[in-house]
Amino acid sequence: MRPVMALAVAVAALAGCGAPAARQDAAALAGTAFETALAAGDHARACSLLAPATRAQLEQDTQQACSAALAGQDLSAARGVRRVEAYGRQAQVRMAGDTLFLSMFSGGWKIVAAGCTPRPDRPYDCRVKGA
């Protein structure tokens, strides 16, 4: 792991349980790390940022290992965090091109849903999600 990325992950893990602003910053950092890994084609890294149930569901739905399954999801390239909302152990990170939902785990924020688009008066439609 590159030193800068290792530092970012450490900061995210430490900030995850703090004040609301720190939780929002940590969730945004986790979301950005996920999108950066996808953009770089580092699907193994992106898979490591998924929540366990999300990863398991993706593998079950596609009958492929996570890296191959994630590569086949045709997720839009996201950039720039536009808004972060954190409520306790849950967060939503809105970016240009994607909306992510995250949950706090002992190791920090993990992606529970990605490739999400809003639908009027209905829940988001997400390409990658847990059960």
Features:
Nuclear Transport Factor 2, Chain: A; 5 strands; five-stranded antiparallel β-sheet; 131 residues; alpha+beta
Task: Please describe the topology of this protein.
Blueprint lengths: L2 H13 L4 H20 L3 H6 L3 H11 L3 H6 L7 E9 L2 E7 L1 E8 L2 E12 L2 E8 L2
Antiparallel strand pairs: 1-2, 2-3, 3-4, 4-5
Notes on the structure:
- It is a single chain.
- By secondary structure, this protein is of the alpha+beta class.
- It has a single domain (3-129), classed as Roll (Nuclear Transport Factor 2, Chain: A), CATH 3.10.450.
- 43% of the residues lie in helices and 34% in strands.
- The chain has helices at 3-15, 20-39, 43-48, 52-62, 66-71, and strands at residues 79-87, 90-96, 98-105, 108-119, 122-129.
- Strands 1-2-3-4-5 form a 5-stranded antiparallel beta sheet.
- β4 (108-119) and β5 (122-129) form a beta hairpin.
- α1 packs antiparallel against α2.
- The N and C termini lie far apart (30 Å).
- 35% of the residues are buried.
- The model is unreliable at 1-17 (pLDDT under 50).
